[in-house]
Amino acid sequence: MSGPSSSKLPINLVEVGPIPGVFDPTQKARILRDERSVLHFSAFDPLTAGGQDASLNLRKLNLDEEKHPPKRIVIEVAPTGKSTWRFVPSARRDEGVDNEGIWPRVIHICERLVYCSQDQWDIYKLDPYYDCVVKKYPGITTISPRNAAGREATLGPTPLGKRPYDNLSNDGMQGGPNKRVHRDVTMESVRSGATTEDEAEDEAEGDKDGEEDEDEDEENFVAEMVADETQYRNPAPPTSRSAPKRSPITPRMKPPPTPRAAKPVSQAAPFSAGPSSPITQTRGQSVPPEESGKKRKDFASKFEPGVVKEEQEEDLHPRRKRVNFEGIERNGGPSNPPYPTQRELRAKRREREEQKRKRWEKEQQARIRERDERAIREAMEGVPPPPTQPQSSYFNFQSHANQGIDRDSSMRGFSDFEEADMPKPESRAFTSEEEAARVAAIEESRRKLQALEADRPLWEKAAKERRAREEVEEAEASAKIEAKKRKEKEQTRQQAERLRREQEEAEAQIRREQEKKDAERARQAQERRARRARWTSGRWTTARAVERFKETSDYFDMTRFSEEHPLFIDDVPWPTLRHPDAFSLPEDVDWDSVEYFFDVLKTHMRTQEYIAFVEKSHRRFHPDRWRSRGLFRAVLDSEQRNYMEIAATTVSQALTPIWQKVRSLKQA
């Protein structure tokens, strides 16, 4: 079946739940007994509701016991609250597929790509209209409609919501289960062999071996689970030696019927088996036709009316395997449950597997024989066939006359009876042309074989030379590959070595630069401490304050401050008369202190020198000058940076009127 385009995304049915009729609205009528019913799905477990000790019965544990996978069941809850359940039927599987796989997964539903859940998959398996097939990998599981043309016309919904059964045969019989039909035949028909209809029926039954084996597996599985449940919950008490032992009854065995007087079989009227002969329906004269490879009931039991009645009831109703669930003997005393033991079930399973294995071996042997025959036919295509034998007696006589056959020797020792049974001489003759052609073909074949045998040393020599050349070429190719690998390995090693050296050099360069920076910072800190110690020691006077201002101004103007050479508060020539140890920013820098400092400075300098010093100081503290030199970025401490920015702005604003006065004096 051609699937949809892989470019389309699959339809998601995982979130739908156990709701039938998602794609097909008519599906509910085929599955639900009431439109308002609700479906639930679960798994059958014989230990369900068995209490906490159901799984802890260590005395019953067996390492050799086979654990079956959980069997899916469907539960239908009616609107009244009543719930019923049944087993979910199995899907068809391709050869080599063990199970139905893991859910959810992507499948094909009516040529649509669907991401399907296990509940929706079980719903389609319950629907008799659809055929569910598990394909072998890499095939995709498919759900497709069955051949519904004749089904809908002949079959209606079943009373229990089960799968409707197909027609039994082509003779118009309908409504029964798809199983074997035991027709009543006479003893003459049994002696003469199966009828034509029986043979056709056997062939149809042969095609259903796989399905019946699967049904047997399912029945044994259910019986085994019920047996396990009974053994776990109700362990059998020890019985007395005198108590009679009852043989266990398997699910496929029936209790012996009540013995009745069998009617005699009339053998007076002969019966001729043929396709047009009618089949009698006499109940007392019915015997089952023989069937190869199938389990048959006992021949004598078929004459019992009770058995025939039970078989007819089986044929008129859907297939139901009878399992005896009685746990008490008729006399009222306790007895062991009549369920098959694990050993019997395993023996049956091994027998089925052995039959499958033998069937597979026969198929393999048939394939091998067919392959050998085909090879022989292909090899003999070039050989001409043996000469044909002409039927002309005259030609045979002439050919024998030409060959000079000794009639006496040829006729010696034969009796009249032997002469009558022996083939005529004319059947052994053949033409000289065909014989010559055959001999020529044989001689040509021999000549070719001799030529080939004569050329054997040349072939062997050529083969040795070819092998030697191939070995040399392989050695050269291997040497080239090894050389290339060594070269690539050497290049990789050199590149890694170069990268390692570059990394080491970069790290060494970084260490050297860091050491250089650390040394420069240490030197700057040493100089700063020396300058500060020079002005903090000794008596502090106004003259020393003016001298410190001049010296600090020269250092401030000549030094290029940056992040590598940071700027500190002591490096700035603040116009103040306070002692360096008592000085603090921004409290000690204001308009009054700046004006007072320059008034005192005016008394210690000449007029022209004072005017030049004021102009230079005004340019030194201008905010644009500080930004152009990047002085604020050179201050590492953010708090000091804010204080210095405020103090520098205050000094610049206080120097502006002083600079204007000095400028007017200079112009005058």
UniProtKB/TrEMBL annotation:
Cite the record's Basic and acidic residues compositional bias ranges: 350-380, 435-447, 453-470, 488-528
Compositional bias ranges of the Polar residues kind: 274-285, 390-402
Report which superkingdom the organism of origin falls in.
Eukaryota
Stretches of Acidic residues bias are at 196-221
Provide the residue span(s) of the region labelled Disordered: 148-533
Name of protein: Uncharacterized protein
The record lists the organism as Coprinellus micaceus (Glistening ink-cap mushroom)
